[in-house]
Amino acid sequence: MTEEPRAAPVDHYENFPVASWLCPPRLRPPIAAIYWFARTADDIADEGDAPAGRRIEALAAYRADLVALSHGRATSGRWDAVFRPLGAALREFALPAPLLLDLLSAFEQDIVKTRDGHGYRDRGELLDYCARSANPVGRLLLHLYGIADEGSLARSDAICSALQLINFWQDLGVDLPRGRRYLPDADCAAFHVDPLVPASAPVEQRRALVRHECEWARELMLEGAPLARRVPGRAGWELRGVVQGGLRILDRIEALGFDTFTARPTIRRRDVAVIGLRMLRM
Questions:
Q1: Which residues form a coiled coil (predicted)?
Q2: Do residues 261 and 176 touch, judged by C-beta distance below 8 A?
Q3: What angle do CA 193, 191, 15 make, to 5 degrees?
Q4: Cα dist. 191→78, 120, 168, 198, 242 in Å?
């Protein structure tokens, strides 16, 4: 079981920029603190061979430390390298603790939801998961930039949910063998794909299903894209890169014929120029 933060493995797919050079120096420490808080919780839920019960216990202890920290009390010290910088960020920037708790709720759901054969009934249920697994990070970043209007928050949610969905459709060939099912049961039924064993469906039905899901993710991303013009300075350019990187992954999935059951698309060196050009055009 992961108990201390460590460098993220190189094959982790990251949905969010982390304290890059585009970020104002003053905001790099709180962004890094948020990242390591989420990264460590994700590792507790997902890495190693510990049984589900022990993972849930560890996340409960992790949650208790967060609650203590948010109320100005001492933590257990078990994850001091995470909570010490996070405490500084909470004090200096008044980070909304409920958003951090939402992330933990999603990580707890990861342990019990997909590992016991249960998937997501429909898109609404999957979006509820995204609202806790991805959207809080975008809202926390907007908080640091002092952006809190409802329109910007809604666009941030659309971008973050789209990134989460793109990650799902990119990783079908990785997730399904591990018992993780994110394809909504209702969508599977519409394409005559067994949600319990979607890889067993005929290739053309699988591809049509993935195309359908990618169209959904693209619509969400384009819905949120105007936020890049609302976020100031270099961070707005970074957000353009996030949006165009996600859209480019969808292009790569399409280039594979939407068959991510057997291949995992990634951004290649030549894609970087395409992303850069699209960033300029936004």
A1: none
A2: yes
A3: 80
A4: 47, 16, 18, 10, 31
CB 112 within 8 A of CB 139: no
- Listed in sequence order, the residues at least 6 apart from 188 whose beta carbon sits closer than 8 Å to its beta carbon are 194, 195, 198, 209
End-to-end CA distance of the chain: 43
Give, for 57, the enclosing helix (H) or strand (E).
helix 52-70
Q: CATH second-level architecture of 118-282?
A: Orthogonal Bundle (1.10)
278 CB-near residues (< 8 Å, 6+ apart): 244, 247, 248
Task: Give average pLDDT by consecutive 10-residue segment, the chain, 282 residues.
Answer: 39 45 83 94 85 93 98 96 97 97 95 73 97 96 95 97 97 92 97 96 98 98 95 88 96 97 93 93 89
pTM above the 0.85 mark? yes
- C-alpha distance from residue 264 to each of 15, 121, 248 (Å): 16, 25, 13
Which CA distances in Å does 66 have to 40, 53, 84, 89? 13, 20, 11, 12
Domain positions in the chain: 25-113, 118-282
Structure tokens at 252: 């790569």
